[in-house]
Amino acid sequence: MTSRTNRHSVGRNRGGAGEVAPADLAYRRQLAVKRYLDGDPIERICQEMGCSKSWLYKWKKRYQAAEPAWSQEHSRRPDSTPTKTPAALAAEIVRLRQTLSSDGSGTVSADVIRDHLRQHRVEPMPSRRTIYRILNRQRQEGPFSSITIDTRTALLAPPHIER
Predict the structure, then answer these.
(1) Could you state, in order of their start, the residue ranges of all structural domains in the chain?
(2) What secondary structure does DSSP assign to 56-103, as a single string?
């Protein structure tokens, strides 16, 4: 929501710190589309309601008289994430890290893990950066372990400790 739409919500029911309640937003959408359907000029509607033409056109396009929830916001989350690393592969990377570090080899580089995956013909082959991210996300390394990517070493600390 832009500042232009915020300034016209003074005195309305507010949902939280500076945010308009969802019911108020739905009401504004319904009012704007009703005025458009009643024949008011788009420029006047937008000027009086403090909204952009693109905002009004978006809600006019979504308007369906038979559907009472047409004025509700839609989720922007994608339906799928086709490039996400498969869970089985992420689990294998974490398992390899635990296996390779438990034999006293110290830090385990992403290249070493990648070589092990290559020997086992794992597909798709993750990048070194992806391996690092998976290990960082899982925090399986302990409070202050390190993972080597190429020649750089990144110190990993628990989230509650400053780096």
Answers:
(1) 3-62, 87-155
(2) HHHHHHH--TT-TTTTSPPP-S-S--TTSPPHHHHHHHHHHHHHHHTT
